[in-house]
Amino acid sequence: MTITVLDTYPAMREVLRAPAADRPGLLRAMLRPAAGLYRYFPGDVDLVAMHRMGSGFPLDRDGERCLEALEALHDAGAWNRIRRALDDAVAVQVAATPGITVPDITVLLVLGDPGDEHFMGPALGLTANGSVPGYLFLNLWPYPENLARLEATAVHELHHNLRYAEGAVGWDPATVTVGEQVVSEGLADAFARQLYGDELGYTRMGVPHLGDDAVFAKVVSGLGVTGMRNFTAWVHGDATAVRYGAAPVGLPAGAGYAAGNRLVDAYLAATGHTPADALLVDSREVIETALGATA
C-alpha cells in the first residue's frame, strides 16, 4: 500500500502565474495523475471542465488572491500534514480491522474558487471526495477553520475509500440508499473524531444541525430513497441540490452529516464499538440499532 500526496503546490503556482492561454494545458497536466477519480464517468472526461464544475480555482480572475491563498496552504504545511494523517489513520484502521483491503491511494489537493458564492458560503470553502477507491480529492479555501481541520478532512475521505475498497460494502449508483450515504458520512466523521476529537472531527457544515430534532426526523424520513441522483438534497441540503440541478426537499446545508453523526453515535453507544471497529458495518444495522436505541 502506497499513499501518494501529489505535490500540487508548484504546479498550481505555475498555472496561476502563466499567461492565460497556457493555463488550461498546465492545469490539465497537473490533474492527469488523478484522472482515475472520474473512471466511472461515461466517455472521455475533460479534466479542466471537471475542475471548474467542482469549484476549483479560476483560470481567468482572482489570480493574486489565489496566489496568496496558495501560499497560506503552503505555509500551513498542508501536503505533509495530509500525508502524515493518512499514514497514521491507516495504521489505526488496520489495527482494528486487520483483514481489510487498503488500496494504493493518490491524493489531489486543489485550491478552491474564491468567486464561487456557493463554495465560499454554504459549502464553507470545502468540497472533497473519497468515494472512488484509490483516490482522495480535497478542494478547499484556506479559511482558518479549514486549515485547522486538514487532517480530519483527509481522514474522513480516507474512511470512504476504505469502506468501499474492492466491494467491501456494496455500492450500486442506481439502488444505493440515502441511508447508506448518511451512515457513511456519520461513520467517517466518527473516525475523524476518534483521531482528532469533536472540535476538529465533525464536518463543519453539519455542526449547526446536530441538535435539531426536526432536521434529524426529516432526514430519517428519506433514508430509504434510492439512487445517487437523489442524494444531494438529503445529504448536503437544498442549496447544493439547487446548485447542481436537483430537487430540494426542505433541508439545510449539511443536514445529512448531522443526522449521520447522530445515528452512528447512537449505534456506537448501543454496541460498544469504536468508530474504527465499525468501518464495514451494514448501514441497515446502524439505522435499526440507532433508531431502536433512540425510540
From TrEMBL:
InterPro entries named among the record's database cross-references: DUF2268
Domain DUF2268 stretches: 102-287
Highest taxon of the lineage: Bacteria
Identification of the protein by name: Uncharacterized protein YjaZ
Organism of this sequence: Amycolatopsis australiensis
